[in-house]
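User: Second chain of the day. Same drill as before.
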Amino acid sequence: MSEWREWVGWGAGIVGGLVGAIVGIRSFFKADAASVDAKRAADALEEANRIRLEENPPERPPWGDARWVSGELFAIKNDSARSVVVTGIESDSDRLAGLLRHRRAYPTTVDAGDTIEVMAIGTMGGRPNPIILWHWERDASNVQRTRRSLSKPK
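Assistant: Same format as last time:
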């Protein structure tokens, strides 16, 4: 009788060991697959950040050159691929500040590809150039100043 119990004990031990080994191997392969997926996601995020920085370097302002529209009206385009919040427009000259006008109330969001328009009345004493006070959308802590020169074609 005791021999029969011994064989059952050995059989149960072998079956339990095999089940444990199979469960362990499956867990190992699942963890390995999850690790591969996480690596792919991290690589994709790194590539997306590289492309974003390439298209919009943090040190480069989003504003293109000022373009004359007509009369005393000029347009300045957001050339970046990101939205910008303009908090104000100032003149580069205190003496000519009264000759600079703009149509929007500030702060305002200027989407990628959109323009802001300024009217700069020229006199014998010159024409005021705008200084745009702006920050990237969702980054209000970093307000920057960008000056654009205005000139009419001859």
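Residues 63-147 form a domain with the Immunoglobulin-like fold (CATH 2.60.40).

User: Great, on to the next one.
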